[in-house]
Design goal:
disordered N terminus, elongated, alpha+beta, 153 residues, 4-stranded antiparallel β-sheet, 16% helix, 41% strand, 2 helices
Length: 153
């Protein structure tokens, strides 16, 4: 009788051990934290010349902060960079597309500059977040210095 009771209790404990250790996170190691989002941002410059001055910096981060490569620019991965600059000449040559390679918590675009040639130029940012188009941002630059940070979450 003792042996049957011992075996029954042993089986019950083993069953409880495996039940308690099962994963219920569905692939999310931290279900208490918000999840990142995929982003695609297309930046187009109209009227920008080599005589103008424009500085564009991209930075971002993931929820857990461990990924080293977050973005690709025009299809090229920005390896081991959580922040980088887009050269003015790249914007002059045509639209620049920035895409996340992993879901991110935030992407910031810092832009500043002015038109040195006495004319104006404009920048358009077209964000797509988690596959959904967002309202485009249009900013004109004149001979007065302008700087702004655009955050996408």
């Amino acid at each position: 009788m003792k042996r049957i009771l011992f075996l029954s209790l042993s089986m019950l404990m083993v069953t409880a051990l495996f039940t308690a250790c099962s994963k219920d996170d569905n692939g999310n190691p931290r279900p208490d934290l918000p999840q990142g989002k995929t982003m695609k941002l297309t930046i187009t410059a109209t009227g920008l010349t080599s005589n103008d001055h424009l500085k564009t910096t991209i930075s971002g981060g993931t929820i857990n902060g461990t990924e080293a490569t977050l973005y690709k620019v025009n299809g090229v991965a920005q390896v081991n960079q959580k922040g980088f600059e887009i050269g003015q000449s790249k914007l002059i040559s045509g639209p620049v597309t920035i895409e996340t390679v992993v879901p991110v918590a935030i992407t910031s675009i810092s832009m500043g500059g002015f038109s040195a040639a006495g004319h104006s130029f404009s920048i358009k940012i077209e964000p797509v977040i988690d596959g959904k188009s967002q309202t485009a941002i249009n900013q004109s630059y004149t001979t007065e210095t302008f700087a702004k940070v655009y955050d996408f979450r």
